[in-house]
């Protein structure tokens, strides 16, 4: 079962060397050697080095980079079929009172499936959407999720009393003519087919973000950004 291979030029030799990756794994490195015309290797200038290669076997050679990538994919699939690697805990930390756990899952393959290596994550024992990338990147982004959760916890008591929704906000004052709201202002923002009332939590050059809750789900904080003149004072 073929899977797409990501081909990335080398930083030092971008024209003659490439790394091949799938999921979190580097499945091979390809190097091109420009042999002189007539040399016996001139027709196969691309050498493929994979984690499965051993010193007692010749390095496989190919006519094109795509052929080398396809061979690396085939080797990676065989390795996934025969590997006895098991998922393992790659990282655990406590951040702002929350326990973050990241688990590494190796690549697997069978007759009817193939899954690339990946991370999964939990925050306080609950499954969390896991960003892609190395463990350090995943951990940093999960800390940001915790930061948002803590901000939401602080906002909820302020947002619940403001919960309101309007179908039409015509005639209500807003921020026109270059005026801008300030953080903490009460405002309506158009979201999910209605004007939702909440608090301005961030102000950029031309847009502001409003946090709000809904009557049907008062325990969840939603955020919506819009231009100043589209907001309505609350």
Q: Termini separation (Å)?
A: 56 Å
Name the poorly predicted regions: none
* Helicity range: 10-25%
Shape: elongated
Number of strands: 17
Going by helix content, strand content and strand pairing, the class is: alpha+beta
Gyration radius, in Å: 27 Å
Beta-sheet strand percentage?
35-45%
User: How many DSSP H or I helices?
Assistant: 2
State the major sheet: 6 strands, antiparallel
What's the mean pLDDT score? 95
What is the chain-wise order of helices and strands?
A: EEEEEHEEEEEEHEEEEEE
What does this structure look like?
The protein is an alpha+beta fold. 18% of the residues lie in helices and 36% in strands. Strands 12, 13, 14, 15, 16 and 17 form a six-stranded antiparallel beta sheet that branches. A five-stranded antiparallel beta sheet has the order 1-2-3-4-5, with helices on one face. It has a four-stranded antiparallel beta sheet with strand order 6-7-10-11, with helices on one face. Strand 10 and strand 11 (126-128) form a beta hairpin. The protein is elongated and about 80 Å long. It starts with 5 loop residues before the first strand and ends with a strand.
